[in-house]
Amino acid sequence: MTRELSTSDITGIHQTLALFAHAVDNKETDALSLVFTDDVTIEIGVGKGTVLHGLDAFRDYVRRLPADAADHQTVDTIILVDSDGTVRARSRYLAVRADGSITNGDYLDIVTRTPRGWRINYRRTVHRYPRVDGLIGPTAITDEWRPEPARAPLTIQQDR
């Protein structure tokens, strides 16, 4: 498999990841189809966290979020390509709570090129700070999410 991604691919992945916060924080659940595949799996938290299967399950989750749920920002995204062609994105998130306090963590995504553009097929949210309830934070990031030169995408200037 190739590690080549076009500049359009990389831009499309970043656009998809950025759209997540807008759709969730504004409860624009119809827009979530621009972010996730229909069969997405989302793991929120580590250990005792929530696991959701399918876009409809995540839409229901978003609809149930309280009005004062945290606002999210997705930052510092890196893209990795596995030897089998799997494309992963690892991003940091900052979430501002209604009381002004901030929490942060990592989004660990597998993204897939679909006929409708890049979509997240798998997301794991790893909480970092503040530490609560014995969560293990960044140590929950396993090797497949660690950056290595051999997994950095080879960027090509022209779209395929």
What would you say this structure looks like, in words?
With 160 residues, the protein is an alpha/beta fold. The protein has one domain: Roll (Nuclear Transport Factor 2, Chain: A). Helix content is 18%, strand content 41%. It has two helices and eight strands, in the order βαββαβββββ. The protein has a six-stranded mixed beta sheet with strand order 3-2-7-6-5-4, with helices on one face. The protein has a two-stranded parallel sheet with strand order 1-8. A hairpin with a 2-residue loop joins strand 6 and strand 7 (117-129). The longest helix is centred in the N-terminal third of the chain and has 19 residues, at 7-25. It is globular. The protein starts with a strand and ends with a strand. The model has no long low-confidence stretch (mean pLDDT 87).
Rounded radius of gyration (Å): 16 Å
Strand content: 35-45%
Q: Quickly count the helices.
A: 2
Give the name of the CATH architecture: Roll
Question: Which key terms come to mind for this protein?
Answer:
160 residues, alpha/beta, Nuclear Transport Factor 2, Chain: A, six-stranded mixed β-sheet, two-stranded parallel ribbon, globular
